[in-house]
Amino acid sequence: MRLPTTPVTSLWRDLRDEVRHNYPAGRVVLAVDGVDGAGKTTFADGLAEAFSEAGSAVYRASIDGFHRPRSERYARGRDSAEGFYRDSYDYATFRRVLLDPFREGAQTGASTGFQLSAFDVTRDAPVEAAWVTAPRDAVLIVDGIFLNRPELRGLWNWALWLEVPYAVSFARMALRDGSDPDPDAPANARYRGGQELYRREARPSAAATAIVENSDLAHPVRIFGDYC
Ligand SMILES: Nc1ncnc2c1ncn2[C@@H]1O[C@H](COP(=O)(O)OP(=O)(O)OP(=O)(O)O)[C@@H](O)[C@H]1O
Ligand SMILES: Cc1cn([C@H]2C[C@H](O)[C@@H](COP(=O)(O)O)O2)c(=O)[nH]c1=O
To answer: Which UniProt key words apply to this protein (predicted)?
Structure first.
């Protein structure tokens, strides 16, 4: 399907062309990172459509499909920002069932299967996702928080950081989820504090390959250097 031409789709196409210039063939893995509510899912879905219209086989996953069980996520306390940053996700499973077999498929003639999710955070239970195979030149786009942390950086061919102020991201989540729009609300402390810890420790905008300011959803803007 051909996307319309708008400032948003033009940016998706520019980013796609940049990735394809650097990785014209073989398996490619992209990360779309940003704070909760930055627009990661929406942006990653759009980027996937841009790859798709250019003929690539594209697979989508979210780190949200690899949560750890509540008992582990809350081990440091229900409101712990440190727990949010350090204990939210099962990166070993993420690598074992998705990243590693997806990459291996470039060598095995696409016979290696991978799973796009492993855990349902709402049910707090593992999911038995289908094993999927893909053509040799497939693209995988993963969205989610904390993807530019040091333990994950080496996994991506290309990583995006979506820059959005907390006032905007919490307002979006309030509209979407009915949560408190105030970034300073006690109910948001775990999430905001976890993001601040991440930004301090991991400097995600500096680690990313590209940065997009995504406050105006109709006009995302590519930015460069040490803007953040
Ligand atoms: N380009 C867009 N145009 C209109 N609305 C958008 C756009 N991008 C995101 N939104 C809206 O903003 C909200 C947050 O977007 P999205 O779910 O993509 O963010 P996210 O970063 O993936 O969030 P989370 O980390 O909480 O999963 C959603 O309600 C979504 O519908
Ligand atoms: C309630 C709430 C949740 N989230 C997101 C953050 C996590 O990825 C999941 C699970 O959160 P938990 O606190 O580890 O159970 O949901 C969020 O961003 N904002 C919220 O208010």
So the answer is: Kinase, Transferase
Query: How far is ligand 2, taken at its centre, from the CA of residue 43, in Å?
Result: 20
> What is the tally of structural domains in the chain?
1
User: Which range of residues forms the domain containing residue 72?
Assistant: 63-137
The reply to whether 165 falls in a domain is: no
Instruction: Output phi, psi for 171, to 5 deg.
Output: -65, -40
pLDDT, tens only, 150-192: 999 999 999 999 999 999 999 999 999 999 999 999 999 999 9
CA atoms within 13 A on the CB side of 144: 24
State the sign of the Cα–Cα–Cα–Cα dihedral 161, 87, 179, 42.
positive
List strand residue ranges (DSSP E) for 114-172, in order. Answer: 119-120, 125-126, 139-143, 158-163
Tokens of 16: 């796609």
Ligand 1 binding pocket includes 62 (Cβ within 6 Å): no
Is the separation of the CB atoms in 146 and 68 below 8 Å?
Answer: no
Residues 20-69: tens digit of each pLDDT: 999 999 999 999 999 999 999 999 999 999 999 999 999 999 999 999 99
Please, what sign has the CA dihedral across residues 164, 167, 168, 174? positive
Torsion of CA 188, 155, 86, 60, to 10 degrees: 40
- What's at 191, amino acid-wise? Y
- Give the Å distance between the CA of 85 and the centre of ligand 2: 11
Q: How far is the CA of 110 from the centre of ligand 1 (A)?
A: 32
Instruction: Show the tokens assigned to 159.
Output: 């990583």
Distance CA 82, CA 173 (A): 21
